[in-house]
Amino acid sequence: MAGKFLSLFKPVGRILLEIKKPTRKVSFNEKIFWTALVLVLFLVMAQIPLYGIDVDANSQYTQMNVIFASNKGTLMELGIGPIVTAGLILQLLVGSSIIKCDMSNPDDRSLFTSASKVFSIGLTAVQAGTYIIGGMYGSLSPLVMLVIFFQLIITGIFVMLLDELLQKGWGLGSGISLFIMAGVAQHILWSMFSPVGGYGLFVGGLSALLEGSKTTFEWVVGTANGMPSLIGFIATIIIFIVIIYVQGIRVELPITYAGYKGFRSRYPIKLLYVSNLPVIFAGALFANVFFFTQLLWNRFGQSSSTMFTWFFRIFGNYKATAEGAIECVGGLAHYVSPPSGIINVAHDPVRALVYLVILLIFCAVFSLTWLEVGGLGPSKVAQQLMDSGMQIPGYRRSERPIEQILRRYIPVVTVLGGIIVGLIAGLADFLGVFGSGTGILLSVGIIYQYYELLMRERAAEMFPAFRTILGE
User: Do 436 and 429 contact (CB within 8 A), yes or no?
Assistant: First the structure.
């Protein structure tokens, strides 16, 4: 049963907006329709500017935009950030047994969902207030502040309901995955084909060459301000192929089923055992360092206080450019944001090296941390195999020998996989891939998940008896 903490959300869950599960079988075509509708609504919201502010045309595409599917100055300013953050916090608390919750119990699962919604709305309010009070939109009147605040709150609740609509079975997959993939795909397309001033951020690589605003060398190699390049386009394709290949690498342990003699199978331990989570955690941490230091600099950066001067030198120093944008020029924030493109790496190789080293260290640490917190450790897996009636051939049917064998592989594969995804993400950014290295990593994983989901749904649609095998 749920602990006292989750029980506090029982009364709240009754008044929260909720999407009900379908009481009938939703056809495949209907699921496609609702998924497409959710996608269109997201893309529209990502282009509607917040009422009461001037959209900063010089804003850059950052890690935060990728991970949180956000777009500065629009209704999707916060993106899926509050939803993802709230979910991760609660999962960490449940995984570390700080909060008692049995996810196999429908009541506990319902309370967990209610807690996630409350946390999401609370984090939306906190982040919206931080943006406004921190001066991200400049000097505003109290009325305009309230208008912007409520726009972000209402949008955050709407995004939460769109995600729930898909997850409850009306559509395919989850809104979070769909929004991330759509944001990265949109950025890749605009990176090549955006007309002059068409997107507000930059001119697409192909459009710039045809329009004559870039030389052939700049179009091939790139420029210091991170304009799309041919090398970046080629690197994007190569990184896609590399990630697909790496996701297929695995170690397979032979297992047998105690109930049936002669039955043999294999338990796969993927090289990317914890998937892309390490680089997501690292990217989110780095993005928040960049965001909060920029926020503080906006508020206190012009102060003559010695304390503020040293603080910004250590954690993140900025300067205003002639175009009105803000550029990070030093401190921790400078070294946890990757130089994008070969030109920028060549101009500042020390920054590139420091960023890569920090990224790899954090990916390795987050991999091991999630191994235990996420219930993926050798002891948990050994217990699951035992409960399923499985055993390792040649060993007595006991949890201990299975755990010892798994302990030889899982920790090593976990750290190695974390380092590999960090290395791919870092090198991809250095080559100037479209959509950032983290975005490409996430997109490949999401596309593969949707491919499996579509094949499964199609098979279930063509062969209804197959649903009983899938447990539907």
Answer: yes
